[in-house]
Design brief:
The protein is α/β, with parallel strands linked by helices and 247 residues long. It is 33% helix and 23% strand.
Length: 247
């Protein structure tokens, strides 16, 4: 019996999710299983997508719909409710059930990479659905954090305020980019912070994995900071998605 899965987002051509699941289905002999990328100009197009693809059994959700998709869901897992964002949807009996695997995937990835330091402090660049998942993981790891946003109302800092006072960058052990700045195909962009404040003591994590070294990570690497992209996180969350769809 044919089963379809996929990824929804505003721009999805950059995603490795299709190749990841295509290879998985091939390895496991699931010839009737398919994974596709669905670029939606707005989240309201989800209704048409579901009507046109009745075989859909599950979806991943990426920028900018992790929060906007909530209104379509019949039920939301308690962890996803706490986070306020969903990146996995299970479709069962015509109902959409929402989950968040981003937070646990980031938690596992960060725990393996970020060392135990005294009084760890993180600076999160961006305040969207991915940032909310990161916040939840940092809470579990007892890592204090502050948010940087373009809008004053959404974080402790704005990019503009960091231009005037870069102390939050200097004081953070860990800097995490949760924004889409630098993601393929717009690889010549990066968060507007003062990269000269980065040092070999900084750990710089970009949730983007395509390209493998974003301009954000390149600038950090030039200052001898420790760097990591989001590929491992993608793999972990993909397996967690698969477990949800098959539970």
């Amino acid at each position: 019996m044919e089963k379809k899965f996929g990824l929804i987002g505003a721009t999805v051509s950059h995603s490795f999710s299709k190749s990841y699941f295509d290879e998985k289905f091939f390895r496991e002999g699931l010839r009737d299983y398919h994974y596709d990328l669905y670029s939606l100009p707005n989240i309201d197009e989800l209704k048409n997508l579901l009507e046109e693809n009745p075989e859909l059994a599950g979806l991943n959700v990426t920028i900018p719909y992790k929060e906007q998709v909530l209104k379509f869901l019949s039920n939301i897992d308690s962890d996803a409710q706490k986070i306020g964002a969903v990146n996995v949807i299970k479709i069962k009996d015509g109902k959409l059930l929402g989950y968040n695997t981003d937070s646990d995937a980031f938690y596992e990835s960060l725990e393996r990479w970020f060392p135990a330091v005294k009084n760890p402090k993180a600076l999160i660049l961006g305040t969207g659905g991915s940032a909310k998942a990161v916040q939840q993981a940092l809470k579990k790891l007892s890592i204090q954090y502050e948010l940087v946003s373009r809008e004053k109302s959404k974080g402790q800092h704005t990019y503009e305020s960091l231009e005037k006072d870069g102390t939050p960058i200097s004081e953070a052990n860990l800097i995490i980019n949760t924004s889409p700045l630098g993601m393929s195909p717009n690889t010549n962009t990066c968060p507007p912070i003062d990269y000269d404040l980065l040092t070999p003591e900084h750990y710089v994590y970009d949730l983007i994995y395509n390209p493998a070294r974003t301009l954000f990570l390149q600038k950090a690497e030039m200052r001898n900071s420790h760097i990591k992209n989001g590929l491992e996180m993608l793999h972990i969350q993909a397996e967690k998605s698969w477990a949800i769809w098959n539970n």
